[in-house]
Amino acid sequence: MFFPDPAQAPAERLAPQGFRALFRHWLLIAIRRRGVVPLELENVRHTVILTPARPPRPHLRSRRNSRRVAAVRAERRAGVVSVLCRWAGVACCAVDAGERIQELADQVVALRDAYYRGSPKVADAEYDGVEDELRGLIEANPELAPDPNPLEQVGSPVVLHAPVRHSRPMLSLEKATKSEQVVAFFDRFPGQSVVVMPKLDGLSLAVVYEDGRLARAVTRGDGTTGDDVTPLVRALTGGIPERLDAPGRVEVRGEVVMLRSTFAAYNAAHPDKPLINPRNAAAGTLRAKDPATVAERRLQFLAFDLHTDPDSAESDLDGALRTLGFTAADMRHCDGAEAAQEVISEIERRRNDLDYDLDGAVLRLADRDAYAAAGTRSSSPRGALAFKFAAEEKTTVLSDVVWDVGKTGKIAPVAWLEPVFVGGTTVTRATLANQEVIRARGIRIGDTVLVRRAGDVIPFVAGVLDAAKRTGAETEIVPPATCPSCAQPLTEQGNSRELFCTNVSCPAQTVRRLIHWASRAAADIDAVGGVWIERLAEAGILEHPSDFYRLDRERLLEFDRIGEVSATRMIDSIDASRGVGLRRALIGLAIPMASDGTAARLCRAGFGSLEEVADAGEEALVAVEDIGPKVAASLIEHLTRLRPELERLRERGVSLDVREEDLPPVVAAGAPLAGKTVVVTGAISDPRSGEKVPRPTFQRLCEKAGATIASSVSASTDLLVTGADVGASKLTKAEKHGVEVVDQGEIWQQLIDANVV
Ligand SMILES: [Zn+2]
């Protein structure tokens, strides 16, 4: 270094003003043009690099002289630059390039050493800055390259979480949401085969093999530098072989996920410390300091990219990965945009049946050479496209928690959220389950939380996004001591400490029970909505389900905003519900522990009416399949209590008798499926008309043909009947258990032949 650090110059002398500011600007540009590497632009410190720029004059051309002259010139120039800099308010320190290179090289060695010992001294970006500056200087002055050059040293020892630079950047993919973008992608590569695969919602990982041995597994990191996670991956990740039958260097990239089944099993085993979602769980696992502490958190690797040097693998990506022994994400070859769009739609439909989270589909050139030849843009490869689905999980702010009284008196916490678009709809309310879940997930009002909504599932709050980002303004969620509706003290039940209001005349419960009676699964009084049920209950007109059947048009017309038309509609709808029958009436009465399935099984067991069930006694009830003593006791207790209500319903013309559709099927003579346990999957349609048939209807037809219907494939299943768009999981299971798989067409033919349909 030639000069003392001018950054110490008095501040007022550095203030940019008028001509001086202009000059300062020019100077900065000039300095940069001359190969100066600015360290902190505008923030005072710059490094001026001085190299012997021009050859010495002829008469001085002797080796010794030229060197000396160059040094003198450099020193002089540095002096001039330094004075100008000071005058213009640009602080600088001038350094000789050779010295600077050696300094940086020493720094790289020291920093790497610190990383490898597990105590990094600087952030990744800063380390990269040092490497970049060194690389730039060596490129400009190759003759000054240090020996040994730390940038050329590879194969450093594996140290958990040490930063490792990727051999080529791990780029993100160009995003698409519209089918036109898929068409445009195919237009870009006419005649090329494209694979479409699920876009897993996990963490990208690069796995490097050297001469057939697993050398290193590195996370994506910032795309340039990732974390060395080799020991964790070796111990915890499925799908990464220790050895490959391939020479040289092989790099396989893919996605690490925690399978949904692993995630669910872990949370069932650790209810006090649940994982927030599979992705966070996988990320947390790869951040662990010791594999032993996260042994139950198994991960799975699914490959999607391959580079070999020398190139010995086949050119088809899917085939090459499989030959090497990797599990690839389910890749489907498509020759056109239309076919690809179909596969994309199918992946989206199946997304909830799969054992991993996914957030879209990836299109990629199937041929590895074509993919490589397509090259990259600044931050994404040209040969691939990510088609994004609507997110099933988003973050939002939990603005409040309201304790809601349910139809059975259960007081459940409901999260009020800042509106968030998730799972294809705007969500403002979500369930928080119970106070134990709130406690285990450590949720507070004001937290930024993760909200999940998949398929038809009620949105729920999965957990707090990052508890470290709390401001201190968050408040504890306090469960109520008394019922929010009737102010009676609450009781706690079960391990999850669910709260109950046991007051049978609790107004909130009354309304909930009435709404439940009118719901689709029960009496299905669709013309009288929840708001009106609440008003009618407030007015004292509705208290029990039987009160619906006392209503008339005149009574309804007394209310503002109920006109002739809606009054008639309401009464017609109530009338139509009089045929509700045993099964749906039992569902409508919302008896604790008695599920929809309980109601169906009672019908099949031969009970003719709700009164028969009420009179049956425990012994007769527990004789019914899947009804235990607890359910039987609850049925007896509540039906005894409801006896007067059953009488009122009967008096007002409501049928509580079993309906034909709920009776056990009469097995037809020569039943083709007699004695067979059958699982039905996929979309079912009648081959004669092509019309869609609801699965329960088809299942009932199978039962008429003698089958026993099961919901999932197991060793005791005889047949898996497949409709359209069948999920892979059921097929895999069927294969595992050796279950015969039959297309729906064949079964339809048997049903037609046996006169079942
Ligand atoms: Zn209450």
UniProtKB/TrEMBL annotation:
<dbReference type="InterPro" id="IPR001679">
    <property type="entry name" value="DNA_ligase"/>
</dbReference>
<keyword id="KW-0464">Manganese</keyword>
<keyword id="KW-0862">Zinc</keyword>
<dbReference type="InterPro" id="IPR018239">
    <property type="entry name" value="DNA_ligase_AS"/>
</dbReference>
<feature type="binding site">
    <location>
        <begin position="172"/>
        <end position="173"/>
    </location>
    <ligand>
        <name>NAD(+)</name>
    </ligand>
</feature>
<feature type="binding site">
    <location>
        <position position="255"/>
    </location>
    <ligand>
        <name>NAD(+)</name>
    </ligand>
</feature>
<dbReference type="GO" id="GO:0016874">
    <property type="term" value="F:ligase activity"/>
</dbReference>
<keyword id="KW-0234">DNA repair</keyword>
<feature type="domain" description="BRCT">
    <location>
        <begin position="668"/>
        <end position="757"/>
    </location>
</feature>
<feature type="binding site">
    <location>
        <position position="388"/>
    </location>
    <ligand>
        <name>NAD(+)</name>
    </ligand>
</feature>
<feature type="binding site">
    <location>
        <position position="506"/>
    </location>
    <ligand>
        <name>Zn(2+)</name>
    </ligand>
</feature>
<dbReference type="Pfam" id="PF14520">
    <property type="entry name" value="HHH_5"/>
</dbReference>
<feature type="active site" description="N6-AMP-lysine intermediate">
    <location>
        <position position="199"/>
    </location>
</feature>
<feature type="binding site">
    <location>
        <position position="486"/>
    </location>
    <ligand>
        <name>Zn(2+)</name>
    </ligand>
</feature>
<feature type="binding site">
    <location>
        <begin position="124"/>
        <end position="128"/>
    </location>
    <ligand>
        <name>NAD(+)</name>
    </ligand>
</feature>
<comment type="function">
    <text>DNA ligase that catalyzes the formation of phosphodiester linkages between 5'-phosphoryl and 3'-hydroxyl groups in double-stranded DNA using NAD as a coenzyme and as the energy source for the reaction. It is essential for DNA replication and repair of damaged DNA.</text>
</comment>
<feature type="binding site">
    <location>
        <position position="220"/>
    </location>
    <ligand>
        <name>NAD(+)</name>
    </ligand>
</feature>
<dbReference type="InterPro" id="IPR001357">
    <property type="entry name" value="BRCT_dom"/>
</dbReference>
<keyword id="KW-0227">DNA damage</keyword>
<feature type="binding site">
    <location>
        <position position="483"/>
    </location>
    <ligand>
        <name>Zn(2+)</name>
    </ligand>
</feature>
<keyword id="KW-0235">DNA replication</keyword>
<protein>
    <recommendedName>
        <fullName>DNA ligase</fullName>
        <ecNumber>6.5.1.2</ecNumber>
    </recommendedName>
</protein>
<dbReference type="Pfam" id="PF00533">
    <property type="entry name" value="BRCT"/>
</dbReference>
<keyword id="KW-0460">Magnesium</keyword>
<keyword id="KW-0520">NAD</keyword>
<comment type="similarity">
    <text>Belongs to the NAD-dependent DNA ligase family. LigA subfamily.</text>
</comment>
<dbReference type="Pfam" id="PF01653">
    <property type="entry name" value="DNA_ligase_aden"/>
</dbReference>
<dbReference type="InterPro" id="IPR036420">
    <property type="entry name" value="BRCT_dom_sf"/>
</dbReference>
<dbReference type="InterPro" id="IPR013839">
    <property type="entry name" value="DNAligase_adenylation"/>
</dbReference>
<dbReference type="InterPro" id="IPR004150">
    <property type="entry name" value="NAD_DNA_ligase_OB"/>
</dbReference>
<dbReference type="Pfam" id="PF03120">
    <property type="entry name" value="OB_DNA_ligase"/>
</dbReference>
<keyword id="KW-0436">Ligase</keyword>
<dbReference type="InterPro" id="IPR010994">
    <property type="entry name" value="RuvA_2-like"/>
</dbReference>
<dbReference type="InterPro" id="IPR012340">
    <property type="entry name" value="NA-bd_OB-fold"/>
</dbReference>
<dbReference type="InterPro" id="IPR003583">
    <property type="entry name" value="Hlx-hairpin-Hlx_DNA-bd_motif"/>
</dbReference>
<dbReference type="InterPro" id="IPR013840">
    <property type="entry name" value="DNAligase_N"/>
</dbReference>
<keyword id="KW-0479">Metal-binding</keyword>
